[in-house]
Amino acid sequence: MTHVDNHPLARDFPEYRQQIHQLKLANAHFVRLHEQYETLDREIIRAEEGLEHRSDLSLDALKMQRVRLKDELHQMLAQAAAWR
Asked: DSSP code of 83?
């Protein structure tokens, strides 16, 4: 079995660690999007490790959804950082 890395926001965006923490405490929309992102990431990892069977098309769709969520979360983090 191949080990596949997950993509937590704090590792992908270390410069926004403080904003991630603050938004998790104060912004329900951010929390909801972050939870969706983490769930998608885990689902993609299970498929890539062969623990769940998915077609290539289905897996690609999940990855695109993860990218869209990550972009939206990044935008929220950048805005939060600009307000500091």
From this structure: T
